[in-house]
Design a protein that fits this description.
Elements: E1 2-3, H1 14-20, H2 37-57, E2 64-67, H3 70-85, E3 91-95, H4 100-110, E4 115-119, H5 129-138, E5 143-145, H6 159-169, E6 172-176, E7 196-200, E8 211-215, H7 246-285, E9 289-291, E10 302-307, H8 312-319, E11 323-324, H9 338-342, H10 347-350, E12 353-357, H11 364-367
Helix pairs in contact: 1-7, 2-7, 3-4, 5-6
Length: about 375
């Protein structure tokens, strides 16, 4: 079977698994314990992983808070900021094309009398920095949250411009960068207005169940205040209590290290594969296919494709013995795509759309299967 659902999850890299195994067997210490060797070894392994992740995204190691994944990170950051700073503002600005873990968090907060403004997007799912600036001038929010790279259509928001607008207005800015990390260069040092970032290891050939919330410091010695989602023993600089999953953290660090080394090569491979698959679909099916995504300024390797006159669920079932594909986000697979609706597609067009998400490990010969489609 050809696996083409890498936006949902990726296959763990063998080197990542190899790095993890000792911390499931011999090196099983709790890094919060003291003095004895197993604890110190675990503590050192976590520290190394923190440095590896920080190197990939251009932040300080102590700005990385390990979580169970981007869904927890999104919940933590949005709820935590609103709770701690509600006396200054109870308004959030976000977009209509966010991941469900952002949208559902905002929906929940609205039941607690928090105000949420959902920005419209263009036909590729992007928001405009000038639009955001105008809105902030009318009513200053406590937080703006905008996805960096869309998980369904791959489009990229102008994060640096959005972050600049927020910084100039004195507003916290958060971005869910889950789909971008490891596929495009990210350097938070170059984006001073980017206060918070969310990411998951399993999107870059790391293990499931581990991710990070990046909480930028106010200065070298001043940590940003935010209400924790989990209270307890005060791990992770009192931001996120709970015993650290050392094996998963080590795997995350190794995956980040590999992604950083291979970033340029992987980008090239993904772009080549994307072009190859697009050519196959166009030449095989002609005007029976339509590409919903932009051909530039997008995450490499994500294609959103309409198969005109064909129900996507029926097509997915028919192809399932041969190819792993999806109609959109794995976290909202039972619902029509809110992303495609927000960019102006009709219900019929949405029901005809399938997402292809490629991997650098995909072979061109794998994609030759789609030459048989008619």
């Amino acid at each position: 079977m050809i696996y083409l659902d890498n936006s949902a999850t990726t296959k763990i890299d063998p080197l990542v698994l190899e790095a993890m195994l000792p911390y499931l067997q011999e090196e099983y210490g709790n890094p919060s314990s003291k003095y004895y060797l197993l604890a110190e070894n675990a503590k050192k392994a976590v520290s190394v992983a923190r440095e590896q992740v920080a190197a990939l995204i251009g932040c300080h190691p102590d700005e990385i808070i390990f979580t169970s994944g981007a869904t927890e990170s999104n919940n933590f950051i949005i709820k935590g900021i609103i709770d701690h700073y509600s006396s200054s503002s109870n308004l959030i600005i976000t977009t209509k094309v966010e991941h469900p873990s952002v949208l559902e968090t905002c929906n929940y907060l609205q039941t607690k009398e928090v105000k949420v403004n959902y920005l419209d997007v263009d036909n590729y799912g992007r928001i405009n920095a000038d639009q955001l600036h105008s809105l902030i001038k009318i009513n200053k929010p406590v937080l703006v949250s905008a996805i960096w790279g869309n998980n369904e259509i791959g489009s990229l928001n102008p994060i640096k411009e959005l972050a600049t607008v927020c910084k100039q207005a004195g507003v916290f800015f958060h971005s869910d960068a889950t789909q971008v990390i490891g596929k495009l260069p990210v350097n938070m040092t170059d984006i001073p207005g980017l206060c918070f970032l969310s990411l998951s290891a399993h999107k870059l050939c790391g293990p499931k169940g581990i991710g990070a919330a990046i909480i930028r410091k106010q200065s070298d010695e001043i940590y940003t205040k935010i209400t924790p989602l989990l209270h307890g023993g005060g791990q992770e600089n009192n931001y996120r209590s709970g015993t650290l999953a050392v094996h998963n953290i080590v795997g995350f660090g190794k995956a980040a290290e590999i992604a950083m080394k291979q970033l340029t090569d992987n980008q090239r491979k993904l772009l080549d594969l994307e072009s190859y698959l697009s050519d196959i679909l166009s030449s095989t099916l002609g005007d029976k296919v339509y590409f919903n995504h932009d051909n530039s300024d997008k995450i490499p390797g994500i294609l959103s494709v309409q198969f005109k006159g064909v129900n996507n669920e029926l097509l997915l079932k028919k192809l399932s013995p041969y190819a792993a594909l999806s109609s959109g986000s794995a976290c909202s697979s039972s619902k029509p795509s809110h992303v495609l609706s927000a960019i102006g597609m009709t219900s019929e067009e949405i029901r005809q759309t399938i997402r292809f998400s490629l991997s650098p490990h995909t072979l061109p010969s794998d994609l030759d299967f789609f030459k048989s489609l008619r």
